[in-house]
Design goal:
Length: 279
């Protein structure tokens, strides 16, 4: 059991969150984002893909528009300050240049100068079958240190940017490698649910996927059949969000929680303790 981490006041500082898809913030760490926003942190969210194929019974153009609009709605509900869209095609980041993706992230780090950099855990233990998540995790992980090297992308410096070092890295995932920090999201669980429900297009596509898998296994799910016919998504999403948050919370004697692997000061916190002084 890990003692819950106290969210410090933002005091004008920035968190840079880099995700692959529109629904990643709300589903993976929506409660923690809300806690940060409530504490006054400035939160910038970079969405790498445009989720152009994540829908059911919509055209590609309509899917892009719907998911972008729902992403903005969810971001507003979560208290995200600013959105950055990179516009990569979804589900094919495995074919994209990791170095090119990394450059985009370096540019955002140098632009926003975040205190903390937040993304998928590149070393998730198991259960991560989304290559977009894996590609983003690797690119962001490397951007953390390359953003500090002045010889990486001198064109950034020529345009007025400067190298920047993030103090913290927060990693989330389906199962992070080593849980170091737990956030109690009990006070904001209902708001996380509301933010997740903004993603009607992506969630209805997910329902369609689950129904197909169930049918292959010889099962019927009347709850999902109703949703697929245009019914209310809330009961199904409530089950997912509340169930997942409570399952994590039980491991730490909390009603609802989210887990992270956090690296502070590059793992050299002892150096600060022994030799540092507060500015």
């Amino acid at each position: 059991m890990t003692t819950p981490t106290t969210i410090a006041p933002g005091e004008g500082r920035t968190i840079l969150l880099v995700v692959a898809h529109a629904d990643d913030p709300a589903l993976f760490l929506g409660g923690t984002i809300l806690r940060w926003a409530d504490a006054g942190w400035r939160i910038v969210c970079v969405r790498v893909t445009d989720d152009r194929w994540d829908s059911h019974n919509l055209t590609e153009a309509a899917t892009i528009a719907a998911n972008a609009a729902e992403f903005r709605q969810a971001a507003a509900a979560l208290g995200i300050t600013e959105i950055v869209e990179l516009g990569y095609a979804t589900d094919v980041l495995g074919d994209a240049s990791e170095v090119a993706l990394r450059e985009h992230v370096i540019r955002q780090i140098r632009t926003h100068k975040p205190y903390a950099l937040v993304t998928f855990d590149p070393y998730a233990m198991y259960g991560e079958d989304n290559q977009d998540h894996i590609k983003v995790a690797a690119a962001v992980d490397e951007a953390f240190w390359t953003s500090q090297f002045p010889l990486h992308h001198p064109e950034h410096l020529a345009s007025g940017l400067a190298p920047h070092g993030c103090f913290e890295r927060w990693y989330f995932g389906r199962s992070v490698t080593q849980v170091t920090d737990v956030i109690d999201i009990t006070p904001v669980l209902e708001r996380k649910l509301d933010a997740a429900l903004c993603h009607q297009t992506m969630l209805r596509n997910y329902v369609n996927q689950v129904r197909m898998q169930a049918r292959t296994g010889g099962w019927a799910l009347p709850l999902l059949d109703d949703v697929a016919a245009g019914g209310d998504l809330r009961p199904f999403v409530e089950m997912l969000i509340r169930g997942g948050a409570r399952q994590v919370g039980q491991r730490h004697d909390l009603d609802a929680a989210e887990e992270f692997r956090v690296v502070r000061f590059g793992g050299l916190e002892g150096l600060l303790t022994r030799h540092g002084r507060r500015l």
